[in-house]
Amino acid sequence: MLHLAAPTDPGWFDRIEDDLHLVLVDHAHLEKRAASTALSMIFRYTGRPDLPMTLSPIVREEMRHFEQMLGILAERGIELIRLEAADYATTLVGKVRKQEPQRLLDRLIVAALIEARSAERFKILSERVKDAPLAAYYGQLFESEARHYTVYTDLARRYFGHDAVKTRLDELASAEVEALQSTTKQARLHSW
Ligand SMILES: [Fe+2]
Ligand SMILES: [Fe+2]
């Protein structure tokens, strides 16, 4: 189960449909960022049992998704332009506490929530996008990002225990919905 405090607003797809190319570009950047998040945790938390071995395959998988997205953009004649960082990620990363070990707990939970929201939106895209190959791709991607949510929350429970994870997951899941609501300016994978 994806622990999201609220489902995506039913109007999201209608709001982004005309700018789907921007959402695809945003999504390509997001895959690269997901790989970078996992890799940076491997660098930072080398001594944590199982963390490098658990997150290394995620780095590879996210980079494979990035390459698949580059193919999807190229086939549709869409350029991988630079996009302004969405308020969503900036707001959420801002909630991560500075002090260890709370910092690790928060980083794992924020990563899990971004995976969960991405998975939920990929499901919506798989059901609503008219481009059939793209819709099929989003159907597959839903499953892998939902699994990544579990990988991050399982690691968090291993280090911090069930109760601490539940408390912080509840808090950060509410912050995640607020972060979505603040991302209204442009069509993004994580826009309102
Ligand atoms: Fe991914
Ligand atoms: Fe992922």
Automatic annotation (TrEMBL):
<dbReference type="InterPro" id="IPR010386">
    <property type="entry name" value="tRNA-Hydrxlase_MiaE"/>
</dbReference>
<dbReference type="InterPro" id="IPR012347">
    <property type="entry name" value="Ferritin-like"/>
</dbReference>
<dbReference type="Pfam" id="PF06175">
    <property type="entry name" value="MiaE"/>
</dbReference>
<dbReference type="GO" id="GO:0045301">
    <property type="term" value="F:tRNA 2-(methylsulfanyl)-N(6)-isopentenyladenosine(37) hydroxylase activity"/>
</dbReference>
<dbReference type="GO" id="GO:0006400">
    <property type="term" value="P:tRNA modification"/>
</dbReference>
<protein>
    <submittedName>
        <fullName>tRNA-(Ms[2]io[6]A)-hydroxylase</fullName>
    </submittedName>
</protein>
<dbReference type="InterPro" id="IPR009078">
    <property type="entry name" value="Ferritin-like_SF"/>
</dbReference>
